[in-house]
TrEMBL record:
It comes from the Eukaryota. PANTHER family: FAMILY ACETYLTRANSFERASE, PUTATIVE (AFU_ORTHOLOGUE AFUA_7G00850)-RELATED (PTHR43441:SF2), RIBOSOMAL-PROTEIN-SERINE ACETYLTRANSFERASE (PTHR43441). GO terms for molecular function: protein N-terminal-serine acetyltransferase activity; protein-N-terminal-alanine acetyltransferase activity. This is N-acetyltransferase domain-containing protein. Residues 16-179 form the N-acetyltransferase domain.
């Protein structure tokens, strides 16, 4: 696949703006990643005492480098002039036409349709510009909010479950996989997300 990822991305939505990460975003991203409420279902990403700005800058630099190499595309979510989260693809395989999509959003912005909007723009880019065949979500059993959104809004069924694969707070949790294919995106899911975002 010969598609080259853009150096800069900017998507303007009703709820937020989505743009390429900047190293100057590090303090706001650090606050999001270090908040245990935000990371309730992403505990494998937490660090004792929280993230440092240096660690966040290293993460951002790695994401931008992988974008240059056509292996990732992450956007920061901007609302009222503040970085409130990140979304997009930390793993993209254009050769085989698949990617993994995700989102981390500050709890102050939960329930405001931002996740739907972020996924709409990300999936539109993946299927219609890159030409991917499959995009997957990987989440945990306890994350019923994400699982419910995928199942109800996108109409997807769980593709696979890895039983008791992660241990958080002394308890093992299951890992759930959901996959969206290009035909379902074009024929059904794109319109479903668009209607949810732009409903009158």
């Amino acid at each position: 696949m010969s598609y080259s990822f853009p150096k800069e991305v900017s998507w303007e939505g009703l709820s937020a703006t989505y743009r390429t990460p900047q190293l100057s975003d590090a303090p706001e991203i650090r606050a999001i990643l270090s908040d245990l409420d935000n990371m309730k279902y992403l505990k494998f990403m937490t660090k004792p005492g929280g993230w440092t700005e240096e660690q966040v800058r290293e993460r951002l630099s790695s994401q931008l480098k992988r974008q240059e190499e056509n292996q990732a595309l992450v956007v920061h979510i901007i609302r009222d002039g503040k970085v409130v989260g990140m979304s997009g693809f930390t793993v993209v395989n254009p050769e085989h036409g698949h990617a993994e999509v995700g989102i981390i959003l500050d709890k102050s912005c939960w329930g405001k349709n931002i996740a739907t909007e972020a996924f709409y723009f990300s999936l539109k880019w993946a299927f219609e510009e890159v030409g991917l065949h499959r995009v997957q979500w990987v989440t945990t059993g306890p994350n019923q909010g994400m699982r419910g959104w995928i199942e109800k809004v996108c109409g997807l069924k769980c593709e696979a479950i890895n039983k008791e694969i992660w241990r958080f707070d002394g308890e093992f949790v299951d890992q759930y996989f959901y996959a969206l294919f290009e035909d379902d995106w074009r024929n059904r899911v794109k319109n479903a997300l668009h209607s949810k975002i732009y409903k009158k």
